[in-house]
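Quick one: structure tokens for this chain, please?
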Amino acid sequence: MPPDNSATIAVGTDVNFPQDGPTSGTDITRTGPNTFNLGLVGIYQIFFNVCVSEAGQLILTLNGADLDYTVVGRTTGTSDIIEMSLVTTTTTNSILTVRNPAINSTALTITPLAGGTRPVSAHLVILQIH
């Protein structure tokens, strides 16, 4: 996550992941700064971590719908919000995002220099497992 990542994740908006990491295959693709296409019907393991300054929550969405079983959060301090979930798609070309839920009451501030002077990473890892 370079320092030019969006500093604030407003309520109801998605987290930007501005750089691509290693990829394998062509069935999982980026479609925007915060949207990822899961090309095949199947089961995907999703892992993310995002360092934020406020207490808050993040959730995975699939095709714009909240996946309620994926809500994760923290109550105090400045640390990562971390999630690992299995997501099942039932249609091809499903769109996945990491979102500050619309029912939350506060925007979240990404902390790109947490703990020092070098940028820390926000990660999103998507593995197709079936």
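The longest strand covers residues 42-52.
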